[in-house]
Every structure is written in C-alpha cells, then in structure tokens.
C-alpha cells in the first residue's frame, strides 16, 4: 500500500538557542560526559536507544535521578512480549517522583472550571498545599481501610481534587481508576464492575457549555450496582452546598483533605499496579488495562523531558477529559517539575476563544489538545493571538487523530511561530510511539520522529518493515509502560488477542503508519475497528449493546472513517424489525440511547437502515472490511464471499460506497 505526501520545506526550524536549551541536548551532553557516547544526529540516538535497550533505559534512569529504595540493576530482565520484566528488585513510588521537583517559585496546579463557587475564575494550588492535601487524603483512605492493591475508583472531572485523589491513592499503594462524570451509567459500570473498587470518589456533577449536569442520582445508582464499594468520598463540585449526608457511609471531600498528616509514601515493586485504564476491542467488555508504577514513571519522565521538552517551572496544559489517557499524561507534568494548567469545561464556551484566553491568562508555555480542536478553530476562523497574550507559549502539542498539514500552517500563522509537537501513542501503553523533539525541523503533516526506546516500524502484509510506504504500526521490542496485564484476563488471552495475534511476539497497534525517508512519521488513521472519537477510543461492542437494547433494532454495524486529509465521520448501520422503518424519531432515540449509555462524543454522525450486517462464517461482524470498502478499497479486495455467512449483504455497502464517491485510501 503506497501513500505519498508532497515534499515540502520545513514549516518550523529550531534556532541555535532553542537547540542548546533543549532537554534532549542536556541528555546527549550527559551521555557524552558520563557514558562516553556521541551521536551524529537524532536518528543515531534513536537507533542506539532501541538496539542497546539496557544502556538507554539505565542511562535515562541515572540522568533523571529517579528515586528508588535500592540502586537499580539492569533494565530488562526478560524481553518477551508480552511478559517483559523491567528493573527487577527495584522499589519506588510514582508519587515520590511527582513531588520530588516541587518548588516555591511556581504553583503545582493552576486551574479553571465552569463548575463550583469559583466558576470561571482561576485558582492556584501551591506545591506545599498539594503535598498537604495528598497526605491528608491518603490518611483518610488508610482510615477507611484502603491498603496496597485495593482499587479506588473515581467518577470525577479534570480538577485539582482529582489530581489529589490520584496521588493519595498511589501513595498508599492502592490502584487508581477514573471515569469522567459525562459518561453514562452503562459505560461506567462496564468498567468499574470489573475491578471491584473498595472506595468510590465521586463529584455531584459538572457544568459544560454553561449547562449544569447533576449526577447525584447516578451516584446512588453506582453505589447500588457496585456492592464492593464500602465508602464514598463525596465531592461537591457542581453545588458547593451539596451534602454527603444523603449517601450511606460517605465522607465529604472537604473533611477528607482537612488537617495536617505526615506524607507516608508506600514503597512498591517496580511492577506494582499504578492505575487501571480502559480501552476496548470489538467484542466483550472494555479491556481493563493495568500499568505499573515503574513503567509509567520511566516512560513519562522520558516523554515529558525528552519529547515534550518540559522544564521545571514550565506551565503545561493539555485539554483532556479524565476518560482520556492524555489526562494521565498531563499528570506527568508533575514528574518534570512543571505546573499543571487544568481546564474543566467546554473549550469553546462562552465563545471559541475561551481556551486560548485561559492559556494566555495563566502563562501556558506548552499548549496541547486533540487534533480535532485545532481543526475546529481553523474552520471557525479563531484568532488566538488576537484573543490572548500568548507571548510565553513556545510549543503546541496535538494528538488523538492525525493533524493535517493545513492545521500546521494555521497554528504557525494564527497562534505563533511555535514548535509543533504532534504525538501518537495510546491508552494501551500509556505513552507515545511517535512524537517530536525541539532540535529537529517540523514538516507539515508529519510527526518528527520515532520516540526513544520505541522500536517502531511500518509492516507490509508480509510482515516486513518498510520506509515511505503505509503499513501497520508495530513495535518489535518491549517498552517499560506496556501493560502488566488486563484485569481478570486468564492466561493473558485477551491481551495476546489484542496486540499479538497478527504478528506473534510483536505489538500491532492498529494504526496506519508511514515512516518518511528523513525519519519522520505520518499516521493515517485506524487500521482496525476501534472507534476513535476526539481522542477517546472505545470498542464497537459497547455501542452495539446500547443501540441493540432498543426493541426496534435487531442488529447494527458501526465504522469510524478516520483517514488523514479527510473529514472524520462515523456512520451507523441498523437492521430493524420487520415492518419498522427508520425515521427521524427513531434516529433521535438511537442517538439519545448512545449519548445516555456512553457519551455525547460517541453519537454517530449518520444512521442508515440496511437489510443485513455482513458477517463471517463464524458470525463475526465484518467491521474492518466494511471500513476499508468505505475508505475506497475495491470490493474484491476487502472480502472473500466464500468466507461469509451472507455475501449478498455486501451489495448494499458497495453501492453506498460508490454513491459517496470514496477514493482509494488504504
């Protein structure tokens, strides 16, 4: 599969001063002085990092001075995938690194929210106050019986209270998991039921786009449906007067973080679980992915220092929901000693300039968001520099979906002559495969490089690595932040099926990738059936459960048509009961059901009635073939009728694709 992008001149080139001050320059200078290693360019550094795995990760550990109870030994004890073992015998805790670079010169958190008594106003949390609240909350959790290995689940928005709750949970060695309060009950319970949390931390609601969303009744529902929950910490986020007394065994948040307590950080093994995040395959429940303290620490230290170029005292913002792995990655700013700049609310309310004003007023130096946000600003004619003083801003980050070349041009013309750091990674391993460094030029439409320590290739159909051809994104060597396991996944069955089925022993990520001759990279979209809406990935099975719960719907098929250079769209195809026709009323009910059960971002863009959903002989819905057909592949290449249970069903989809004029893509 060939896909070419016209050659272009760099859109941005670093100055000698920017190269000299970059953290990656600091790292390479240290390598020369402490290890006697010299590299001609970034490509040589990357090749060393993936060929000398022990050398690279041990060097990163020593350069960053990662705190641990024992001196570190070799980095990689077992290179099997899955099942790699990293830094055996080492004990540490994420919270030690997160609070290690605290400084009185800058706050730990700067935040703004649409909700609460301080709605619309900026509040600051000092490092000392953050430390005090984490210690007090941890003491409360211990008093409630939370111990190492227990799960603490949060139903919380992107606020300082959530940061405190996460750090407190990690400090006692318990396992953190969070869902955003804009998620529906079905989606939340599908996640939290799997992990059986001991404590639930929940906000009474949130405000978005000027509208309040009271979630108090939903908290009652969660408590009824989660029998493992012994205690509730109730956060009056929407209504400051809301009371914890309406719930059994509940403690008000203000009481949970009151007073002074010594900060006791539990030392845990490198591979002790830190958090559980969720992604989905195309069948079954959401995958409950477990990442380790040590793996996240080393990966996020690498990411923030070397690929985001965060310095102590920087002001780091990435617009994110707590459902998105970018919330976890934003927490990594603390590992670099940066100030977290949190925004909870609609980024375009009360007008399209809102998030840019927040960035200007809080002095953000690194501004990150999903690619869809920047494309929305471009289409809306937003003028960030006219709306805010962005003089301190030196970098813009993008992820969640491919950032097209015209968005690079828009950022440079309307935001400023900033470094554009487009990144691509995943919830699956809580990190990045592709990113940038401030010492390389930026080309429109490209990510600058493969990340250090990430042996990424673009595989063709025969499993051969290719340059300047679009192929499957694979990682052929382990990384420390790859999952420990999936929760309750016997013998790692779902884990292996998710990433290692196509190429045994090699991680297949599910993206289309082209590595350019100059070492850059272009992501074209998903190569599998996973839904990727505004950076939030979700398996199709969850949407099917919601849609097919309606009595009129017998069967359904959804595809997320994401491909670089095209407008993203997600059509839903439904098979209805005999005699039922799709009309506006039923379409509205389907959309409302998806919005209620999952979230507004997963509502389909269009709904079509079909006679049958194409299925294999084994009964599986043919999501990937239909997706490829709608992206332009010929019918004869996407499916073999002899392997189908109902090959006649393809005719409707072929006519649909032809009517839409889809050009060749994959």
UniProtKB/TrEMBL annotation:
Domain Acetyl-coenzyme A synthetase N-terminal: 42-98
InterPro entries in the cross-refs: Acac_CoA_synth (IPR005914), ACAS_N (IPR032387), AMP-bd_C (IPR025110), AMP-bd_C_sf (IPR045851), AMP-binding_CS (IPR020845), AMP-dep_synth/lig_dom (IPR000873), ANL_N_sf (IPR042099)
AMP-binding enzyme C-terminal domain ranges (all copies): 548-620
Keywords: ATP-binding, Ligase, Nucleotide-binding
PROSITE patterns: AMP_BINDING
Domain AMP-dependent synthetase/ligase: 117-478
Superkingdom of this protein's organism: Bacteria
Keyword ATP-binding applies: yes
Record-stated family: Belongs to the ATP-dependent AMP-binding enzyme family.
NCBIfam families linked: ac_ac_CoA_syn (TIGR01217), PRK03584.1 (NF002937)
Listed name of the protein: Acetoacetyl-CoA synthetase
